[in-house]
């Protein structure tokens, strides 16, 4: 059985980029359909960072007060520990905008919030359990997508198709757009461990003796990220779970009384790190944004920020055109022209850190001392504003410029 739907814009992927774009286009009155392959948004160890730039967008949309009623934690500074020395790396007190903090919120809560807001507009549709598997093309122009659903095949015919389906994008793969791989020397093993009242308050990263552990304070628990050399996850697992728990306890002794909470490897999630970008983000009828256009390293947790900024730029540049008809490839290319600089600047910074810090740390067996850039942050605290600005706002923050269409009556 083949179901057919027609819409003005079809978005593949219900992550931060897809849902934000779907919301903004619907808010502007554009008929839009978002396809999400899962039955809901409930998946662990997705990026949970809501940056000050995203909070500023919520303010501009008149939604900040309501948004901050959702469970979240506020992070006002980030710290790092190298060997035995601890230094504050970034302070968000001077970032531009209404919120001088980074919010930690489960991504499913963030996406549910966007869904609720988008659903107020009659032009918005969300279809769950619809996995995009192919593109529909006519004479070299993408005219929609083919998706798998529990009831059969779904064909969506759209004036514009947007690939926002992440770093393993089916849309990107089917489009045959050229990918440039920038490389990554590490992967990340994610897990959660309970947090006790006498634990450190700060969110921090610990670097020493060839190991890197990042601890995100989620109040009731620690969201932990162990950075390992690229492709070594199976070797780590081969040593056994007990050895893994002992390594965590030895490296961060205050966790030693709870590493036993890891009872199965299923409780450890592997993120295979990829840093890449498309040479060209679009072709006739198709545009890729977010990780589908540029997979980011987890360094700084800025991938979500870039994806959301892409969505805002896309809505700003294309919503009026979509209201009138189908945007040309020239119109689509303006999104990449707008977002190229922040994407390339962020990736350049990430690759620099990967090659000059992470690669050296993971290959070292020596006790580490505080490097000179962190010594400068300790000596001149005002410099901490720079990392906070890069992480919290980015190189080119976007602002909502679309007009609002009438919402559906309650």
Question: How would you portray this structure in words?
Answer:
The protein is an alpha+beta fold and 410 residues long. Among the domains are: 201 residues, FAD/NAD(P)-binding domain, CATH 3.50.50.60; 84 residues. It has 11 helices and 20 strands. The chain starts with a strand and ends in an 18-residue tail after the last helix. The model has no long low-confidence stretch (mean pLDDT 92).
Comma- or semicolon-separated keywords:
410 residues; alpha+beta; FAD/NAD(P)-binding domain; eight-stranded mixed sheet; seven-stranded mixed sheet; 20 strands; globular
In short:
With 410 residues, this protein is α+β, with helices and mostly antiparallel strands.
Global morphology = globular
CATH-assigned fold name of the domain at 2-45 and 107-181 and 275-356: FAD/NAD(P)-binding domain
Q: What profile does the largest beta sheet have? A: 8 strands, mixed
The helix fraction, in percent, is: 25-40%
Q: What is Rg?
A: 22 Å
CATH superfamily of the domain at 2-45 and 107-181 and 275-356: FAD/NAD(P)-binding domain
Portion in strands: 25-35%
Write the layout of secondary structure elements.
Layout: E1 2-12, H1 16-27, E2 32-36, E3 49-50, H2 52-60, H3 64-67, E4 73-75, E5 77-82, E6 85-91, E7 102-104, H4 107-118, E8 124-128, E9 131-138, E10 141-149, E11 152-163, H5 170-175, E12 179-181, E13 186-194, E14 203-208, E15 211-217, E16 221-229, H6 233-238, H7 241-251, E17 269-271, E18 276-278, E19 282-283, E20 286-288, H8 303-324, H9 329-362, H10 372-379, H11 385-392
Parallel strand pairs: 1-2, 1-11, 2-8, 5-14, 11-20
Antiparallel strand pairs: 3-7, 4-7, 5-6, 9-10, 10-11, 12-18, 13-16, 13-17, 14-15, 15-16, 19-20
Helix pairs in contact: 1-4, 1-8, 8-9
